[in-house]
Amino acid sequence: RQHEAPRRVKRAWVIPPISVSENHKRIPHLLVQIKSDKQQPGGVIYSIKGPGVDEEPLGIFSIDKFSGKVFLNAMLDREENDRYRLRAFALDLGGVTLEDPTDLEIIVVDQNDNRPLFRQDVFTGRVVEGAEPGTCVMTVDATDADDPDTDNAALRYSILEQGAAGMFSINATTGEICTARPGLDRETMGVYNLTVQAADMSGDGLTTTAMAVIYLEDINDNPPEFTKEEFSMEVEEQAAGVDVGKVFVHDKDLAGSPSWLAKFTILEGDPEGAFAIRTDPHTNDGVLSVVKPLDHEVRDRFELTVSVQNERPLKPSAPASPRALATVRVRVRDVNEAPVFRENPRRISVLEGTPPGTAITTYTASDPDTHQIQTLSYALLYDPADWLQLDPHAGTVRTKRELLHPSAFLQGGWYIALVLARDDAEPPLSATGTLSIEILEVNDHAPQLQPPAGVLCGRPGRGGTLLLGATDDDRPPHGAPFHFQLSPQHPQLARNWSIARFNGEGQPGRGGCRIEGSAHPLRPPAVTHAVLAVLAELPEGPYSLPLLLRDSGTPPREQQQLLNVSVDMRDNILNYDEQGGGEEDQDAYDINQLRHPELFTPRAKPPLRRDAPLSSGTPLAPRKLPSSPSDIEDFINEGLEAADSDPSVPPYDTALIYDYEGSGSVASPLSSIVSSLTDEDQDYDYLSEWGPRFRRLADLYG
C-alpha cells in the first residue's frame, strides 16, 4: 500500500513575537518580513491591521505590500503601551486570500527612562524629645513608572542631609525614618529638616529628593527660673485688691504648653497674709497683689521670699535642680488716712434730770497718720432732740437741756447721737462715731396711795376688808413691788387693823406686804395692791389711818399718807309690796348714807351748783335720826331737799325705779292660789297629797 507522505508545515507564515526597545530613535526601523509560499514572489499582496496601524494610535506601524516588510515609524513608550497585537493578511493579485490571517505581536522593551517620584514634596512627623534610639517617626515612599519587574523600578532610599548630629536614619528599602541616637532636646533644636532621596536601579539609577520635617514634642524637662534674684515694688497704704507689680520668669519648655505654666508661692515675709501672687496666663509672670490694707505707720516695708515651679511635675528624665527663689521688696507709701473712733459706738449712762452743762463724756478719734502733724476737730452730726453740745477741739460732750423720761427721741431708754471727726489735710478726711446714751431712771417719786379713801364693813370676816393700791411715776426698777404698812409712829393701830399683801388673784396672801409688779415705758404706771382688814368689830364712822408706802428703788423712797376709811354698818329699807324675788333683787336704801352724809363729802371746798339757789348750803352737822318707822318718809324727804341744794353731796339720791320685779325665783310660782276671785272657784284637794306639812292648809281649804 502506498502511503501519503506527511504534509509540510509552512513556517514562513508563522511569525514569532517581535521585541523592540522603547524610545528607538532610528525611524523607520525594520521590524520583520513576512512571507507566503503560495505564489511566486511578486504574486502576493501583504497587509496588516490593528492598533498602531488602522486603529489608535494610527501610523506607528506599516508594511510593504509587495515585500512583506514591517516597519516601525515612531518612537514607542512602554509606559503607554507595552505591546501591540496585529493581524497579517496575504492575497493574490486578484484579491483572493492565499493564507489564513496570522498574529503579529510586537513587544516594547523597557528602558530606564523614568525617575522615581515621591508621593509628596514634604513629609511631616513628630517625636517627643528625649525619645530612645530606634523610635520610628515616619515613612517616606516613592513610585517609579518603569517596569516593576526590572531594576529600572527597583528603588532605594537614603538621607542626603540632616545636619551634623545624625539623629535619624532611614530604612533603604521601606523608607521608614527612626531615631538613630539619644539626646533629642526640643529646647536645643525643636525641628529637624531632612533631605531624603529615592533612586532606581537599586540605588544606582535615576534619583529624586523630598523634604522630611520632624518636630520634637515638648515634655516638662525644664523648671521655670526667675530672670533676676531681686525685685522692688511700691504700694500705697490702705489699698486693697490692687496689683503691686510683677516678677518675671523664664521657662525653656514650649510656651503656652502645660509644661510651661508656672505657679508662685510666698514662702516668707508675709505672716499676716496681706499679699497674694497669681500667674499671668499670657506671659507666665507672677503678679503680686495686696489683699489686706497695709498701714504705713505700722510697717512701711516688706521683704518677701517667692518661689516658682511648674503646674505639672518635672519628668524623671529632667536634670535635678533646686527650686527657683527670688526676693521681692515692697515699700508702703504713706497717704492721708481718715480719723478712727477706736470705740464705736461709745456707750454711756446718764441719770435722768442731769442739769444742763454737765459733762457726760469725751468722745474723740485718733489720727492714724502718726508721721504727719494734723489736727482733728469735732461736730455733732446728729442730735435729734438738741440735748447735747460738743467742744469742737476737745470732743467733750455736755448736756444742753435736761434729759427726761419719757421722750419720743428715746429708743428703749437710749438716745442716739452721731459725732463727726475731721482732719485738716488736703483734702480733709472724716469719720463718724455713734454715741449711745442710756438715760438711767432715778428714783425721784414715792408711791402714791390709790385711791386715798374707801368704805368697808366694821365686822371682821364679813366684808371687813378694803383693797388698797399704789402708783409710782418712776420706771423699773424704782417702782413695784411696793411695801404697805401701818405707820410705825402709831403702833396702837395694829390692835384694830392689819395690812396683808394681795396675791393678784382676788385673794389676800399670807405673810409680808410686798407685791410683785412692773411698769412698761410709755404705758400706764404699774399698780400693785394690798388688803386692809379690820381685826375687831368697830363702831361705824370715819377713820383716818396713817399708812407708810415704800417702793423698791435704789435707794427706796417712802411716804406716809392718810387713808380715809368709812366703817359702814349697812341697814336697808326694803319695799315688800312687790312680787319680785325678794331682798336680793330690790333697789334698797342704804340708811347709813343718810345717817352720815359727812362721810361721803369731799374734804376740799366744793363748787356751788348752778341749778340751786345761792342761799342754799350744805348742812353743817348730821341730821337727827328718825325715832320711829313713821318718821322715815319725812327723814328721806328732808335729805333729798338738802341734797338738791348741796353740790358736794354724792349722787346717792338719784331717782330709783321700784317697779322692777327681779329676775325671778327658784321656787315654783304660786299664781294658781290667787288665780280666781273666790275660794269656790279653786280646787284645793291636791293639798292633802303634799304631806304632813300641808295638812293644816288642806283642812282649811279642802
Automatic annotation (TrEMBL):
GO terms for molecular function: beta-catenin binding; cadherin binding; calcium ion binding. The keyword Membrane applies. InterPro entries: Cadherin, Cadherin-like_dom, Cadherin-like_sf, Cadherin_CS, Cadherin_Y-type_LIR, Catenin-bd_sf. Transmembrane segments: none annotated. GO terms for cellular component: adherens junction; catenin complex; cell surface. GO terms for biological process: adherens junction organization; calcium-dependent cell-cell adhesion via plasma membrane cell adhesion molecules; cell migration; cell morphogenesis; cell-cell adhesion mediated by cadherin; cell-cell junction assembly; homophilic cell adhesion via plasma membrane adhesion molecules. Residues 599-633 are annotated as: Disordered. Residues 12-118, 119-226, 236-341, 342-449 form the Cadherin domain. It is found in: Cell membrane. Keywords: Calcium, Cell adhesion, Cell membrane, Cleavage on pair of basic residues, Glycoprotein, Membrane, Metal-binding, Repeat, Transmembrane, Transmembrane helix. SMART domains: CA. It is a single-pass type I membrane protein. Its main location: membrane. It comes from the Eukaryota. Cadherins are calcium-dependent cell adhesion proteins. This is CAD15 protein. The lineage of its organism: Eukaryota, Metazoa, Chordata, Craniata, Vertebrata.
